[in-house]
Design goal:
By secondary structure, the protein is mainly alpha-helical. The protein has two domains: 3-113, Serine Threonine Protein Phosphatase 5, Tetratricopeptide repeat (Alpha Horseshoe); 116-150. Helix content is 69%, strand content 0%. Helix 2 (22-35) runs antiparallel to helix 3, helix 3 runs antiparallel to helix 4 (56-70) and helix 4 (56-70) runs antiparallel to helix 5.
Length: 150
């Protein structure tokens, strides 16, 4: 599945969510997650579906994963809501014409095929620092070895 078809499937899932067809939306999001694992927007939308379906504990687990992977503010906010006042499945309002969004309007679907940057960047920095320390220490270690071997 390419990025364009994934975006289209994501929009379909969003539409299903808006129509309160949470199980169908979740199924579509799970398919997307198999193709693009650990994508924040997909995981967040799935957590919202789980919440609406009454699967609060599963939604919490997904939020915890997003916090670990992305340090996601929206996951933290959803988790706080889930822990403070768990909701039951059903529409949030009696108004059937009310628009329901899976994601905030400023969510970026362009990131759908990218892995979490913060964790990867941290790992790269740590590796570079370790290598730099070894390179700097190498002359001293060699000097010590020469001095103790003679």
């Amino acid at each position: 599945m390419n990025s364009d078809s994934a975006k289209q499937r994501f929009q379909q899932a969003n539409q299903l969510f808006g129509e309160r067809r949470y199980e169908e939306a979740l199924t579509m999001l799970q398919e997307l997650n198999r193709e693009f694992p650990n994508t924040e927007n997909i995981m967040y939308a799935a957590a919202l579906c789980l919440e609406k379906m009454g699967s609060i504990e599963e939604a919490k687990l997904l939020c915890h994963s997003m916090l670990r992977l992305f340090e996601s503010q929206k996951a933290q906010e959803l988790l706080n809501q889930l822990e403070m006042a768990p909701r039951v499945a059903g529409p949030p309002s009696d108004d059937p014409d009310m628009e329901v969004q899976v994601l905030p309007k400023n969510a970026r679907l362009e990131d759908i095929d990218k892995e979490p940057k913060s964790k990867r960047n941290l790992l790269i920095i740590i590796i570079v620092l370790i290598l730099a320390a070894l390179v700097l220490a190498l002359p001293f270690i060699l000097n010590l070895l020469k001095g103790s071997g003679a």
